Every structure is written in structure tokens, then in C-alpha cells.
Amino acid sequence: MKGALAQAARTLKVAELSSKIFGNAFNPTGARTGNYILRQNFRGEHMVRYYPSQLDRNLVKVPRLSRLMGEKMYDPDDIDRLNVNDKRRARGKGTPKKGEGKRATLAKKKKRSGHKGRFGHEFFRFEIDGRGRLKYANNSNYRRGSIIRKELTLSPLFVEEIKRIIRDSEIMDESDEKWPKDSEDGRQQLEIRLDGKRIDFQASRVTSLVDIQGTDDPEGLRVLYYLVQDFKCLILSVISLHFKIKPYA
User: Where is this protein found (predicted)?
Assistant: First the structure.
């Protein structure tokens, strides 16, 4: 009889403790509390008793208990910290914050070349940022072709080679004031930010060295022409290798 009463008392105590935790299930008044949690004490593989334990105030989220208790369990300071971490993860691991890329040695390099003719607006464009991200686009309506877009990441060694080509060309010391801006063949634009300097040149499209003869600044256009040809060969080659090579074939 005493054992039965003791078991009944334990059952009543468990129900009382449970009502504090799962009020919507056990308490007819609907009272809820998030101060205590009912834990189990095991001896080996057998559960021997229940005991109440106060919740850790630094506990951030327990979704299952939150649903049962109908109450959010988190520290406001911790949740703010998690939100900041989520924003950092959304930007990507190792990605600089907005504006930090401008402090890179090679902040950005852009090259655009295009014209409007019988096949519409045709252009060739590529862009490289300070983190080595290359974006390439080539558009031609010949035979109803669609725009070609490619994007890839260059190695630091490749980016250093691009910097060396730019420095050796001395294009950063040139000026486009005397360059022709437009022609029937189209126009081209070159934008570079390197070593704290920035240039944004615009000139008519140069298809050969013959086009620069008779201009006001043939030497400057010659530097532009050779640099553009070097970059075209380099960029098209690396894109071809990246997307066509089959290392596991």
C-alpha cells in the first residue's frame, strides 16, 4: 500500500512539474512558464527519476521546447549577435565588407569594345576585380546568336601577371584627350584602378595599326592597341582552358 501511495505521489509530482513546463497540455488555466525544464536521471539504460532544472539564461534557442511552452526562449543580446553572424555568413567566407575591395592593389579592370551595325549592338566586355573575379560577356546578333556570359575566379598568380602587364605597358601614364571618341567601326572603353591610380579611357574602335595613323596621338593609341590585344588573347585563352579542358577524361 505504501509503495502504491509513493508511486502515486511521484506521478502527481511529475504531473505538477510537467504542468509548469507544458502548461498548454496539463494545466487547464493555460498558464505557461519558461523558467524550469523537466530532466530525466538515468542509471545505466534505465530512467530512475525526474527532476526540475532551471533553464540556462544564456540558452539561445530550443525550438521544440519553444513550441511546447508557447514562449520564445532566447537572450536578446545573443540573438542580436547571431543576426550579425548571419549577415557575415551571407556575404561569404573571406569576402570583404562593402568598400574594402577598393583597398586592393588591383581594385578593378574593365574593358569594353562594341559597335552598332547591321546585326544590332555587338560588344565584347570583360571585368576583373581585386579578388580575381573575372566576368566575360560577348554579344552578337549574327545568325540570331544570344549573349555569351562567363564567370570564373582567377588565381592570385594570374592576377599578379595582369598587374605586371598593365605596369609594363605604362598605360596609366597616358591620356585620352587627343584620342578620337567615335567612328563607324564603334568605340571602346578601358577602365583600370591600380596602385591608387584610376584611368577611364574612351576611344574609337581600333582594329589595326593602320587606324591610328594620322591621329593626334598615335603613340598613346598604339599603347592602347597592344594592351587590348594582349588582354584579349590572355582572357580568351584562360576562358577556353577553364570551360573546355577535361582533367578527368
Answer: Nucleus
pTM of the model: 0.51
Question: CA geometry: angle at 91 spanning 85 and 93, to 5°?
Answer: 80
Are the C-beta atoms of 143 and 122 separated by less than 8 Å? no
- Does residue 243 sit in helix, strand or coil? helix
Residue position matching grid coordinates 574609337: 204
Q: What is the distance of C-alpha 188 from the center of its chain?
A: 29
Q: Report the helix count and the strand count for the chain, using DSSP H and E.
A: 6, 8
Question: Among 200, 157, 156, 206, which Cα is nearest to 184's?
Answer: 206
Provide the 3-class DSSP secondary structure of residue 248: coil
Tell me which H or E stretch contains 65: helix 63-69
pLDDT of residue 210: 87
Domains and CATH numbers, the chain: 2-91 (no CATH), 104-244 (3.30.1560.10)
Nearest to 24 by CA among 35, 33, 36, 37: 33
> What's the pLDDT tens digit per position in 143-184?
666 788 888 888 888 889 899 999 999 999 999 999 988 777
Positions of E strands within 118-195: 120-129, 133-139, 148-153, 187-194
Short-list 78, 75, 73, CA closest to 34: 73
